[in-house]
């Protein structure tokens, strides 16, 4: 197997979340320069790019800026909302006028969302401030502006809460600096409007289609219609790797979004290990883990069984001769390292792909849970020509 350490992909000193990619933080984002490189190297203007785990839309932004048509899927409604905002041009002056109307809106009648422990995560005056602000935002009729201000509100929720913002999991901070809800929201909204102004100045030619969708089901795309897949699936079950659901939880509650997606994450439904998957590396690891912890072996198997099913669905959409780029991290479970890069190669080979190379990059500018992974593996595959 061709595995190469490529320091040029580290992008040290270049933050992953800047410009359009800095609209709303999100866990474990792609580095935009990594995505840009492979979009430019392995596709042409007008081609169709697919990211079946699109998260907050890094690949969507890069496809749009490079005039590639794009389809992205994610099960997290907050991620989908952020991705749509990052890729939607808005008239700057109209957005600023709408912002002024929201800030001046004298809200008398407002509702506080009901969810467990709201008082634990928010002070009483903050709850009132957020509820009034939310009511003003929800009065906005134009969906482009509504989504923009919802995303700005979501980031505000996190900043004025009692959450420890150095963590992705829901952990209450020991100390929180008191902040004015409206002032925080205004600053975030203005910054987002400035960032989005870039899009309205460009002659954008590409179409962008971002949907909340579970890739374990049918994908609404023609088979063999995709020119390039570029994606970074979850590194493992969310309980032990990146807690997307916990990161999104408070925003989802305040925005009234559906949080049932947590039941459909890869590995969410436990499966029996009896049916093997097409990867010797995985099966050897499962045997080792099973000796130490049978329950964890089942959880690991369940994750990879879902990952294989997702790859089956994705692989059908790729044109013969075209490429798939899969960026993964290798985690440890019960003292056993799971080589997800090699496992993915085995899965794709089973489905008619050739492994071109795996490039190893150091994770130096990607917000990850502390103590998890140092390296990412960029797996480059090509669907065999007919």
Please characterize this protein's 3D structure.
- The chain has 386 residues and is an alpha/beta fold.
- It folds into two domains: 3-79 and 211-242 and 260-383, Vaccinia Virus protein VP39 (Rossmann fold); 92-200, no CATH class.
- The chain is built from twelve helices and ten strands.
- It has helices spanning 32-42, 58-65, 77-86, 92-104, 118-121, 124-138, 143-160, 181-200, 244-255, 280-292, 294-315, 340-350, and strands at residues 3-5, 48-51, 69-74, 208-212, 226-231, 318-328, 332-333, 336-337, 353-362, 375-383.
- The strands form two sheets. Strands 1-9-10-6-5-2-3-4 form an eight-stranded mixed sheet, with helices on both faces. The protein has a two-stranded antiparallel sheet with strand order 7-8.
- α4 runs antiparallel to α8 (181-200) and α7 packs across α8 (181-200).
- The radius of gyration is 21 Å and the shape is globular.
- The relative contact order is 0.16.
- The mean pLDDT is 94.
Q: Strand order across the biggest sheet?
A: 1-9-10-6-5-2-3-4
Overall shape: it is globular
Number of strands: 10
* Helix and strand element order: EHEHEHHHHHHEEHHHEEEHEE
Name of the top-level CATH class of the largest domain: Alpha Beta
Low-confidence stretches: none
Strand content: 15-25%
Radius of gyration from CA coordinates: 21 Å
Count of discrete domains: 2
Please tell me the CATH architecture of the largest domain by its name: 3-Layer(aba) Sandwich
């Amino acid at each position: 197997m061709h595995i190469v350490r490529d320091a040029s992909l580290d992008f040290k000193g270049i933050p992953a979340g800047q410009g359009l990619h800095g609209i709303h933080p999100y866990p474990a984002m792609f580095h935009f320069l990594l995505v840009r490189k492979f979009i430019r190297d392995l596709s042409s203007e007008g081609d169709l790019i697919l990211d079946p785990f699109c998260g907050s839309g890094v690949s969507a932004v890069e496809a749009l800026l490079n005039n590639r048509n794009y389809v992205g899927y994610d099960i997290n409604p907050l991620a989908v909302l952020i991705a749509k905002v990052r890729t939607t041009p808005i008239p700057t002056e109209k957005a600023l006028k709408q912002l002024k109307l929201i800030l001046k809106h004298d809200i008398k009648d407002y509702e506080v969302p009901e969810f467990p422990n709201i008082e634990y995560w928010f002070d009483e005056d903050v709850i009132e401030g957020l509820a009034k602000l939310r009511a003003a935002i929800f009065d906005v009729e134009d969906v482009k502006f509504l989504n923009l201000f919802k995303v700005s509100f979501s980031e505000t929720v996190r900043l004025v809460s009692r959450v420890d913002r150095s963590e992705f999991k829901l952990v209450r901070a020991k100390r929180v600096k008191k902040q004015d809800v409206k002032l925080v929201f205004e600053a975030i909204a203005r910054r987002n409007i400035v960032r989005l102004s870039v899009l309205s100045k460009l002659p954008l030619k590409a179409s962008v289609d971002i949907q909340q969708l579970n890739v374990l089901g049918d994908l609404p795309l023609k088979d063999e219609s995709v020119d390039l897949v570029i994606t970074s699936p979850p590194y493992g079950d969310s309980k032990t790797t990146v807690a997307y659901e916990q990161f999104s939880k408070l925003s989802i509650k305040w925005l009234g979004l559906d949080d049932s997606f947590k039941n459909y994450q890869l590995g969410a439904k436990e499966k029996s290990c009896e049916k093997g998957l097409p990867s010797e590396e995985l099966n050897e690891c499962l045997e080792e883990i099973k000796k130490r912890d049978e329950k964890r072996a089942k959880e690991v198997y369940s994750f990879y069984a879902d990952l294989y099913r997702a790859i089956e669905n994705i692989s059908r959409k790729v044109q013969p001769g075209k490429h798939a780029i899969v960026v993964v991290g290798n985690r440890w479970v019960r003292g056993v390292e799971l080589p997800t890069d090699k496992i993915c190669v085995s899965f794709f080979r089973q489905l008619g792909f050739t492994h071109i190379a795996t490039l190893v990059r150091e994770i130096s500018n990607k917000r990850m849970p502390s103590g998890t992974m140092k390296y990412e593996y960029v797996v480059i595959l090509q669907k065999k020509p007919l």
